[in-house]
Amino acid sequence: MEQIINAKNLTLGYEGEKNPVIKNASFSINKNDFIVITGKSGSGKSTLLKSFYGGIGILNGELDVCFTNLKNINNRNLKELRQKIGIVFQDYKLVNDWTIEKNVMLPLEIDSQSKTICKKRSEHFLKYVKLGHKIGKYPLELSGGEQQRVAVARAIVHEPNLLLCDEPTGNLDEVSSNMVWDFLRAARDSWGTCVVVVTHRAPSTLKFNFRHFEIKERKVVERF
């Protein structure tokens, strides 16, 4: 099966720290996988996720993401890689001075798509996350759950190969959380997007198969 992420003896950490956060991790993630990565606070979940989009450098080992080697990657190749990736953050990271429509357009504008395509796809994906009726609203006019749905729309509007989610339901109530999980699953099922979610705990309510990785004692271990 085609691998979209492949790590060999991957070691990650931050300058000034004596001990690496992740040490000698080896694992692979396939193109159509839905991955849930769990671990205690401070275990390195977000650090590992950052490494997948080049947000943190590699101390040792190898990491290939979307068929790109991230070790000593240059800025041009990093930009090309990120155009294949969508990211959903716990705190949404929306631009509050922009309408939600313009927020969702951002990945398409970065990819130099025409204004017509940007507008059409933004409208389509806001309707997809059930916010088409609020297209002219600004983020702070929405609830937290609605803002996260905008963030999901922005992350999938360009139908990425890889969708990375950092605690996407950490601030949401149960109803909003379930909606977000449904949208993430649909991204995998509809477009074959590989979805990787880091969270404190894998929800017991998920009604679909996923692979479960746990970060424990700086290792990345698959749980069966």
From TrEMBL:
Location of the ABC transporter domain: 5-224
Q: Name one GO cellular component term.
A: plasma membrane
Q: What would you give as a GO molecular function for this chain, any one?
A: ATP hydrolysis activity
**Any Pfam family:** ABC_tran
Signal peptide extent: none
For this UniProt record, the keywords arranged alphabetically read as follows: ATP-binding, Nucleotide-binding
Source organism, top-level taxon: Bacteria
Q: Which PROSITE patterns match?
A: ABC_TRANSPORTER_1, ABC_TRANSPORTER_2
Q: Please name the Gene3D superfamilies in this protein's record.
A: P-loop containing nucleotide triphosphate hydrolases (3.40.50.300)
The name this protein goes by in its record: ABC transporter ATP-binding protein
What is the native source organism of this protein?
A: Campylobacter blaseri
